[in-house]
Design a protein that fits this description.
Layout: H1 3-10, H2 22-29, H3 37-50, H4 53-62, H5 64-72, H6 81-98, H7 107-132, H8 136-148, H9 157-167, H10 171-181, H11 214-236, H12 240-251, H13 259-266, H14 270-289
Helix pairs in contact: 1-6, 3-4, 5-6, 5-7, 6-7, 8-10, 9-10, 11-14, 12-14, 13-14
Family: Belongs to the sigma-70 factor family. RpoH subfamily.
Main location: cytoplasm
Protein name: RNA polymerase sigma factor RpoH
Length: about 290
C-alpha cells in the first residue's frame, strides 16, 4: 500500500482503485453535494476551533470531484489517473488542515495549490525515470534543448534537424522533448514543507476573483490550458511538411504565408498545399472532439 493510499484509509476517504473501477469512483464523488459558502465557512470554523474531524472530512469529501478535474489535466504524462487522484487527495487534505475561513476565499482557490503540488511531485518522480532518463542521449537532449534553440516558440524543420544531428538523437525525440519543455509552467507558491503547521500560506493563495466564483475561474483557465496541450499533441502527430504548413499558415505571429508561396517552396500546386492544410487541420480537430 503506497503512502497516498495509507493516508486515505486512515482518514476514511474513498480510494479510486477500491470501488471496482475508476469510473465508479468518479461517479461516486460527483454525487457528493457541493457546499454553499455558508456551509463551507461553518465546517472550516468547526475544524479550526474545535478540531472537529467530521467537519474536516466533510470539507474533503465535498471537493473530491475537483481533484478529479485537476488530475485529468495531467493525462498526457503517461501515469494512471487513479494514482494522480490519490496524490491530489493528499494535497486536498493538507489544504483543509491549513485553510483559514477568515481570509475571505473559497477552499477550492486555496486547495488547488496543494493538490497540484502533490500531483506535480508524483509526476516528477515517475516522469523523470520513465520518460527522460532512459538513455544518456535523452538526458543530454533534455538539458541542452533550450540552449540549442535559436528563438522562442516552436522550432522549424531546419532547427529540429540541426538539433537532432548535434545531439545525435532522432528528430522525433527532439519534437517530443520540445513538446514537454514547452508545456505550461506550473508555479506552486504554497509553503514547500509538508507538515509544518506554523508556516503561513503564501500571499498568492489569498488572491480573490472579483467577477466569478474562484472554482469556475480556475476551471475556465484550466480548460484553456488543456486545449493548448491538445494543440501541441496534434502538431507532434503531423508529418514534417504538414507541421511546417500549419505552423507558417496559422501559428506564426510574424506573418501569414500564402498558399502560393508555400507551393513555390515545395514545388507543388497551391491546391495541393490547401489539401495538405485541410487534412492536417482535420486531424487536429479530431483531438478536440474526442
Amino acid at each position: 500500500m503506497n503512502p497516498a493510499t495509507t493516508a486515505m484509509v486512515a482518514n476514511n476517504l474513498p480510494i479510486p482503485n477500491a470501488l471496482g473501477s475508476l469510473d465508479a469512483y468518479i461517479g461516486a464523488v460527483h454525487q457528493i453535494p457541493v457546499l454553499t459558502v455558508d456551509e463551507e465557512q461553518s465546517l472550516a470554523r468547526r475544524f479550526r476551533d474545535a478540531e472537529d474531524l467530521d467537519a474536516a472530512r466533510e470539507l474533503v469529501h465535498s471537493h473530491l470531484r475537483f481533484v478529479v478535474h485537476v488530475a485529468r489535466g495531467y493525462n498526457g504524462y503517461g501515469l494512471q489517473l487513479g494514482d494522480l487522484i490519490q496524490e491530489g487527495n493528499i494535497g486536498l487534505m493538507k489544504a483543509v488542515k491549513r485553510f483559514d475561513p477568515e481570509m475571505g476565499v473559497r477552499l477550492v482557490s486555496f486547495a488547488v495549490h496543494w493538490i497540484r503540488a502533490e500531483m506535480h511531485e508524483f509526476i516528477l518522480k515517475n516522469w523523470r525515470i520513465v520518460k527522460v532518463a532512459t538513455t544518456k542521449a535523452q538526458r543530454k537532449l533534455f538539458f541542452n534543448l533550450r540552449k540549442s534553440k535559436t528563438r522562442l516558440g516552436w522550432m522549424n524543420d531546419a532547427e529540429v534537424t540541426a538539433v537532432a544531428a548535434d545531439l545525435k538523437v532522432s528528430k522525433r525525440e527532439v519534437l517530443e522533448m520540445e513538446s514537454r519543455l514547452s508545456g505550461r509552467d506550473i508555479g506552486f507558491d504554497a509553503p514547500s514543507d509538508d507538515d509544518d503547521d506554523h508556516s503561513p500560506p503564501a500571499p498568492g493563495a489569498y488572491l480573490m476573483t472579483q467577477d466569478e466564483d474562484p472554482s469556475q475561474a480556475y476551471e475556465r483557465a484550466d480548460t484553456d490550458g488543456n486545449k493548448l496541450e491538445l494543440l501541441r499533441e496534434g502538431m507532434a502527430g503531423l508529418d514534417e511538411r504538414s507541421r511546417d504548413i500549419i505552423m507558417r499558415r496559422w501559428l506564426d505571429d510574424d506573418s501569414k504565408i500564402t498558399l502560393q508561396e508555400l507551393a513555390d517552396e515545395y514545388g507543388v500546386s497551391a491546391e495541393r498545399i490547401r489539401q495538405i492544410e485541410a487534412n492536417a487541420l482535420k486531424k487536429m480537430k479530431a483531438l478536440f472532439a474526442a
